[in-house]
Amino acid sequence: MAANETPTVTAPVTSTAAPSARARAMEFIVKRHYLRPWEALPWVLVIAAYFIFPDRMTFGTQVLIGIMFALSLDLVLGYAGIVTLGHALFFGIGAYTVALLTARWNWGEPISSMLVAIVLSAAAGFASGWFLLRYRNLTLLMLTLAAAILVQEAGNYRSDITGGYDGVPGMEIWKLFGVFENDLYGRTYYVYVGVLLFVVWFVLRRIVYSPFGAALTGIRENVRRMHAIGSPVHLRLVTAYTIAAGIAGMAGALFAQSTAYTTLGVFDFDNSAKVMVMLILGGTGRLYGAFIGATVYLVLEDNLSKMSPTFWQFGIGLLLVLTVLFARRGLLGVIEDALKLFGRRSKS
Hints:
Blueprint: H1 17-31, H2 41-52, H3 57-79, H4 88-103, H5 110-132, H6 137-157, H7 159-162, H8 187-208, H9 211-221, H10 223-228, H11 233-259, H12 269-282, H13 288-307, H14 312-326, H15 330-347
Helix pairs in contact: 3-8, 3-11, 3-12, 3-13, 4-5, 4-11, 5-11, 9-11, 12-13, 12-15, 13-14
């Protein structure tokens, strides 16, 4: 540099792309918590069903319980990527908690017995998840299935307490809040379960749209990368598994209360497979897929079993095959694609 030359200082180049991308990301994170108008549709249908089918509320209650059970599985399967065939374990623990409290300890108060069922199911989910979730894929699949079978066989061995496959005798559920009795058509429990389902849905919606829910999605998509950035993967998986176990236990408790009857069949592999089929039919990782899948499955089961008590599963199996082959995002994805196509045609 010459003596008479003055050094030139280059100003740093500021890019508007980064702030813009950051602003868009922040806007997306904030807005995804907002309730959209179409999210009210499932609840409008739940309320409408109460007035349209007043003599089918007992079946409607089982549909709502099925939706709650499917929502619990969606948290671990659809968001965290935990593949399990033993989710009926927690459903059964919830059902048997209510049954044994009622039949063995003469405590039939619905709310408190349901809370005990949630705590015990969540504790079982934490204890089993802490060990089982160290494994992945097929190994985890078999271990979760084995856990449910072991508990079922333990209950069968102590049939003097559990009643075995004959069921728990002497279940007497008290009036809800000491006032509302479960009437012949099941209207009371339909409202009761519907309110609890709304609470569960609201809590799960807050979870999946939180940073914790985003971390679960990251674990599902690329667990190695989440390990690499220092995310506590195992702890988050166990936490999600525990929450899902508590919700499944709530569904089992409501099942026992609404039917006043429980057998070891609640632990069956069929129960775990059924809720997984519900979720696949509706669409995983969406929350609202549980509403569609559980409703379609149980309505088909009810009607097809009346038409053919022996071969009713063929119809559901055929629908499942068609869904897997041609609707990978489930029936909810089909509805979304149809609405998008209709919107494009309307604009054109």
